[in-house]
């Protein structure tokens, strides 16, 4: 049985899981999507906050049936992932894929630091990141939910394994590793970054500030979208039930 990560309400993980659960309920409730085709999506939108995603939906004159299929596809992408060369039109597709890729990279980095720390007592020479990457068996996750959980598990394992983080200060970040912010110079800095990032994603507030700039903008936009679409999916479900009762 898959272990469920503990998350704090309003954290990124909690917001994404709430969206997935709400859309799943919507999908199980809406048995005849055609009943939604004449209903404009603006009727289920939360109060305006100047959001560009909202504007795009209105500009496309979307109806509730189209929104139903859109968020249903988005749920599948988030929980099952993307196939090779797959063409998709789900909202924020690039942000989802890029975030998934980045989390996979950071999960591998966490595993590398763990392996390096365990070898400190045997040798002062660490394997290069490229050498480690070629040697280790690491299966990247193809969906954002899976990538987030894998990252969280790898960092948790790293924290439990590194008993003396101060030893990481003697080892610089390799050019072979994924790029980090300029202030990240040693493996100790990376270790701290990974711990903070995990804590923010699982326990942070809606206005989280991630120590990784590559994820900050993408996940912030995704989080706002999940919140809005969760409300809309819930409203759509209620509106569909009203339509069904009328017949």
TrEMBL record:
<protein>
    <submittedName>
        <fullName>Uncharacterized protein</fullName>
    </submittedName>
</protein>
<keyword id="KW-0539">Nucleus</keyword>
<dbReference type="GO" id="GO:0005829">
    <property type="term" value="C:cytosol"/>
</dbReference>
<dbReference type="InterPro" id="IPR053719">
    <property type="entry name" value="Lipogen_MT_Stabilize_sf"/>
</dbReference>
<dbReference type="GO" id="GO:0046890">
    <property type="term" value="P:regulation of lipid biosynthetic process"/>
</dbReference>
<dbReference type="Pfam" id="PF07084">
    <property type="entry name" value="Spot_14"/>
</dbReference>
<comment type="similarity">
    <text>Belongs to the SPOT14 family.</text>
</comment>
<dbReference type="InterPro" id="IPR009786">
    <property type="entry name" value="Spot_14"/>
</dbReference>
<dbReference type="GO" id="GO:0005634">
    <property type="term" value="C:nucleus"/>
</dbReference>
<keyword id="KW-0963">Cytoplasm</keyword>
């Amino acid at each position: 049985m898959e272990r469920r990560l503990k998350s704090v309400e309003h954290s990124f993980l909690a917001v994404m899981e709430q969206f997935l659960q709400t859309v799943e309920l919507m999908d199980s409730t809406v048995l005849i999507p055609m009943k939604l085709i004449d209903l404009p999506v603006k009727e289920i939108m939360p109060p305006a906050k100047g959001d560009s995603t909202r504007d795009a939906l209105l500009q496309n004159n979307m109806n509730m049936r189209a929104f139903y299929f859109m968020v249903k596809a988005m749920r599948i992408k988030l929980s099952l992932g993307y196939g090779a060369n797959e063409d998709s039109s789900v909202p924020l597709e690039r942000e989802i894929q890029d975030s998934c890729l980045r989390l996979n990279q950071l999960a591998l980095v966490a595993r590398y630091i763990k392996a390096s720390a365990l070898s400190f007592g045997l040798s002062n020479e660490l394997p290069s990141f490229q050498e480690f990457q070629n040697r280790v068996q690491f299966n990247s996750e193809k969906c954002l939910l899976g990538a987030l959980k894998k990252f969280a598990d790898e960092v948790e394992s790293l924290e439990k394994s590194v008993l003396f983080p101060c030893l990481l200060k003697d080892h610089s970040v390799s050019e072979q590793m994924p790029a980090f912010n300029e202030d990240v110079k040693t493996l100790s800095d990376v270790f701290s970054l990974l711990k903070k990032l995990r804590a923010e994603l699982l326990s942070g507030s809606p206005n989280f500030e991630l120590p990784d700039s590559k994820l900050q903008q993408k996940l912030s936009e995704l989080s706002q979208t999940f919140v809005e679409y969760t409300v809309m999916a819930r409203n759509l479900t209620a509106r569909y039930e009203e339509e069904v009762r009328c017949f």
